Every structure is written in structure tokens, then in C-alpha cells.
Amino acid sequence: MLLKKHQQFAGLLQKHGQEIGKVVDFNPAKDRLFPFDFTASNTALSAETVADTNTFSDYVTSTLQQNHCRYGIGGYFEHRTLYARSTHFNTSDEARRLHLGIDIWAEAGTPVYASFTGKIHSYADNDHFGDYGPTIILEHNFYGLTFFALYGHLNREALKGLYPGKLIQKNEEIARFGTSEENGSWPPHLHYQLMFDMEGNEGDYPGVCKLSEKEKYLQNTPDPNLILRFPVQR
């Protein structure tokens, strides 16, 4: 059933691509994306760098600046060693290391938008080291197919005035990238993730899973780049 949803979703987005709004202000004619690699193969990124939020933030910022990129991008089903920085991703049997969304890295205060008209499903301040921090989940119905979009690592101010069911318009600014002090102690970025089924969760949904759970989460979390439509960077 979920596999059919994947096919239906991809088909609808391809057919009605002109109706997809933006998630961030990205102009493919002039904005460059840096493809971050947070797997073990990135030997330039040490465990010590990742463990300290300020040092990690300096790494992200300097990498973007040196490569003349407005945004960094990456992460969909990437097996990341960096989650060892927080016990939030550790479990007794198997650590969670597989990233389920796409991260967009940029400076704090970067505007975030709803890519479709929809409504607030839920929201929360997941205020733990390594967690999402302020999080908004939107519910969309696109030509009869319901899906959910999770926006994580936002600014705390964005949660004010929200309530479940509140209507949100396409391309409406819903938040901004949070600072490290409010976004779960990460370099400023947006975690953008799609789900077909919230599985009873509110204000939260796993953004990282165990490698052994890959197939399960592949079924429920389609590729966010179907909406972002960022070009492949080399």
C-alpha cells in the first residue's frame, strides 16, 4: 500500500509540479548548494569537531563560504557517524544513525516556507541536546493524497500563535532557522522530512532510525527532493 503511495506521490508531483511552492528562498540561476557528506568517509570532519557545537558550526559556515554556496544540502538516508555526539540517538541494542530527511544548512534566521497549502498537524519544542528543538508538522492533501511535512530546528518564536488545524497558505513563511541555542544545539539548519503516516506522533517523528529499520522507514518517508527539486551537485 505504501509503495503505491510512493508511486502516486511522485506521479502527482511530476504532473502538477507548477503547483509546488518553496521551502527556502532558492534561486537555481544564482544560488549554489554544497553537498555535505556526514558519513564516515568524510575524513575532514573529526569526532571532536562534531562534538562541540561552536566548532561544528564554524566548520559548516567556513565550508559554505569557501565554496561560495548559499546553502548546504544532503542527508536523505545517509548513514551518519555524527549522531554519536548525542545520547539521544543511542539505544541499548542498536544506535540510530540513518538520516530520514534532507538537511538544508544556512545561517540562523533564514526564512522557511510551507511548500503547499495545508494546516498545522502539530508542533512542539523538542528541547533536548541533539533533538529537533522547535518543530512544526504540516498536513497537506494534494489531489487526494494526504502527507505530512516536518520542519525541525526552527526558531522558538515560530511556535507562538499556532494551534492544530490552523490553515497555512502555500509559500507562507512559517518559521526561520533557529540558532544553536534554541535548535537542539546544532549548526543552524532545517531538517525537512516527509511522511505518509504520522503513526500517532504529534510534534515529533523520528528523523533518524536504526540501519536495521531502513526498509520500514523507506516505505513511510519519501524523498523530500521531490518537493525541493534541488539540482544534483557535483
TrEMBL record:
Signal peptide annotation: none
Domain M23ase beta-sheet core: 98-196
Pfam families for this protein: Peptidase_M23
Keywords, in A-Z order: Signal
InterPro entries: Cell_wall_metabolism_enzyme (IPR050570), Dup_hybrid_motif (IPR011055), M23ase_b-sheet_dom (IPR016047)
GO MF terms, alphabetically ordered: metalloendopeptidase activity
Record has Nucleotidyltransferase as a keyword: no
Domain of life the protein comes from: Bacteria
Regions that span the bilayer: none
Protein name as it appears in the record: Peptidoglycan DD-metalloendopeptidase family protein
Species this protein is from: Mucilaginibacter arboris
